[in-house]
Recover the amino acids of this structure.
């Protein structure tokens, strides 16, 4: 469990706190900023809460059913790998529901802030994480072979 905790803590620090804080700083908005539009607040909150819920569901499902964590940092394992290929639960919707959840969460932050510079940070995150996903896909092909290739044919990377 100790090695799992490190991976989860790292994910929390980078994706739930770090990148959104960087987006907020880049926006130039005060930390206490609240949009004037109630619609903007509602849409931003729905994206952020929905994204976090999807990520948490995916993480819990991966831990309970897969007995591991998928998070590799560009080929460096930061938590034990899953013992089986995840194709059910949130993983039947897309191959990377944790990441889709983070993207939705960040989209909520972007809607809340409504500034251009945070969008550039988000785009950089998407590019870097897409490279990471491609690296993980190669590892999954090695770990699970034809089972993963079949899954990859049936289920999209993000949608």
């Amino acid at each position: 469990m100790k090695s799992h905790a490190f991976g989860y803590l790292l994910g929390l620090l980078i994706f739930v706190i770090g990148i959104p804080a960087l987006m907020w700083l880049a926006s130039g908005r005060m930390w206490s900023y609240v949009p004037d539009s109630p619609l903007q607040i509602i849409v931003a909150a729905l994206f952020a809460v929905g994204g976090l819920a999807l990520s948490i569901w995916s993480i819990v499902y991966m831990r309970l059913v897969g007995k591991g964590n998928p998070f590799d940092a560009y080929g460096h394992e930061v938590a034990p790998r899953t013992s089986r290929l995840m194709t059910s639960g949130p993983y039947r919707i897309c191959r990377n529901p944790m990441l889709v959840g983070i993207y939705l969460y960040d989209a909520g932050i972007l809607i809340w802030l409504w500034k251009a510079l945070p969008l550039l940070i988000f785009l950089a995150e998407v590019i870097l994480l897409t490279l990471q996903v491609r690296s993980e896909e190669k590892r999954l092909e090695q770990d699970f072979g034809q089972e993963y290739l079949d899954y990859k044919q049936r289920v999209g990377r993000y949608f």
Notes: The mean pLDDT is 89. The longest strand covers residues 72-73. The chain has one domain: 2-13+38-154.
